[in-house]
């Protein structure tokens, strides 16, 4: 009986420690919410310095940004994940997931890779510009 009681107490302690860690993680991630002007639907216009065409994507890729996450389309597959602000003009797309339907979108892989490496942004004249360590990568118009 003592063994069962000790085991029960140990399990309660382990579970309560885990619960505390999850609460702390949730609290700290809310500190990186993106600014309000970024929180909307954006449609891709330019990829690596080139205007996108119907030959590149079957449908226009888009991203929908909320305070701490994003969703959207690569032109064929759905995409979603977390979005963290790292200060003024600094963001990171993380926990990236995408569907794996076979598509005829030639630039889909390039689009998703550039989202994954994005580290900065700016907004000017209702356009969103994303960049990584090498410079400007994509531009979007308001959707």
From TrEMBL:
Entries under Pfam families matching the protein: META
Signal peptide: 1-21
Domain of life: Bacteria
Keywords, alphabetical: Signal
Domain DUF306: 37-140
Database matches in PANTHER family: DUF306 DOMAIN-CONTAINING PROTEIN (PTHR35535:SF2), HEAT SHOCK PROTEIN HSLJ (PTHR35535)
Protein name: META domain-containing protein
Organism expressing this protein natively: Flavobacterium humidisoli
């Amino acid at each position: 009986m003592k063994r069962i009681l000790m085991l029960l107490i140990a399990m309660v302690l382990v579970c309560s420690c885990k619960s505390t860690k999850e609460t702390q993680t949730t609290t700290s991630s809310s500190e990186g919410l993106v600014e309000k002007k970024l929180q909307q639907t954006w449609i891709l216009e330019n990829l690596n310095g080139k205007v996108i065409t119907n030959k590149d994507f079957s449908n226009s890729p888009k991203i929908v940004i909320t305070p701490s996450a994003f969703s959207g389309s690569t032109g064929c597959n759905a995409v979603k994940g977390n979005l963290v602000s790292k200060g003024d003009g600094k963001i990171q797309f993380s926990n990236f997931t995408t569907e794996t339907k076979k598509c005829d979108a030639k630039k889909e892989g390039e689009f998703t890779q550039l989202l994954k490496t994005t580290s900065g942004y700016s907004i000017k004249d209702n356009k969103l510009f994303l960049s990584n360590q090498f410079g400007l990568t994509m531009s979007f118009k308001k959707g």
